[in-house]
Amino acid sequence: MNLRSSLKKISILKWPVSFFRSIRRKQSVAKVIREFAEFSRDWHMYKKLPQNPSFALATRNLYPRLFDKTTTTALDPVYFYQNSWCAKKIFEHKPTSHIDVGSDAKFVGIISQYVPTTMVDIRPLPLTLPGLSFIEGSILSLPFKSGTISSLSSICVIEHIGLGRYGDPLDPFGSEKAAQELTRVLSVGGMLYISVPVDQHNTVYFNAHRAFTREYILKLFDKLVVVEEKYVHGTNMYDTYDAKKGPGTGLYCFKKM
């Protein structure tokens, strides 16, 4: 570590090291060269400007971020829509506590700042946050008694179960078993929020995910009542499913009656 720290202080090495680190990103070499050249121009122009004496400027502190100059805000429309939708539904329902199973940790962290939240996942959460608790567990065997959870979410999860992508055991019926467990622990009057890929046919895209027909998702949760459903296709969200729009993501709010 001492040698590494010493090498970092050698200014002349910062340029080649920064360049080769950039090549390791998932971008074409041509794009890296183009963006790195623009970064170099910006650096030399910045140095010629009257400098702010409150900040140190040195070559050894170069920190290229080459791919952030985009014409629109870079984001995944599916996660943007589904996380915003689920958060809104939870806040509208105003539960005294909430349980999430396997959803995106950043989303769960935000939810926990409005309602005490317990996250369940097979992979330990390495961070702590007031309002957020963690239980290591599987969606195939949830650590809760039947009918005890009044507010439950599992966003973009059940399509992955049994494909081994996240270290879980291989199981061709993983999605069906996950749906049964979510239904089991939900209390009467309880709300369940899920999202899954939807398409015209049930399909396994091993080992990324499964896609489901709308009819099959409703069958998996046939003991629950659909309160609301939304569908994300491209950069838009729709209130109803239209097979003509092709593959998309279905967002479902269920209630146990």
Short description:
By secondary structure, the protein is an alpha/beta fold.
Structure report:
28% of the residues are buried. The chain has seven helices and ten strands. 33% of the residues lie in helices and 23% in strands. The protein has an eight-stranded mixed sheet with strand order 3-2-1-4-5-10-8-9. It has a two-stranded antiparallel sheet with strand order 6-7. The N and C termini lie far apart (60 Å). It has two domains: 2-61, no CATH class; 77-255, Vaccinia Virus protein VP39 (Rossmann fold, 3-Layer(aba) Sandwich), CATH 3.40.50.150. The longest helix is centred in the N-terminal third of the chain and has 20 residues, at 29-48. The protein is of the alpha/beta class and 257 residues long.
CATH T-level topology of the largest domain: Rossmann fold
Architecture of the largest domain, according to CATH?
Answer: 3-Layer(aba) Sandwich
Count of separate DSSP helical elements: 7
**Rg from Cα:** 23 Å
Note poorly predicted spans.
none
Q: State the secondary-structure class.
A: alpha/beta
- Order of strands, main sheet, comes to 3-2-1-4-5-10-8-9
Oligomer: single chain
Mean pLDDT, rounded to whole units?
92
What is the count of distinct domains? 2
CATH class of the largest domain: Alpha Beta
The number of distinct β-strands equals: 10
> Helical proportion?
25-40%
List keywords for this structure.
eight-stranded mixed β-sheet, 2 domains, Rossmann fold, 10 strands, 7 helices, 257 residues, 33% helix, alpha/beta
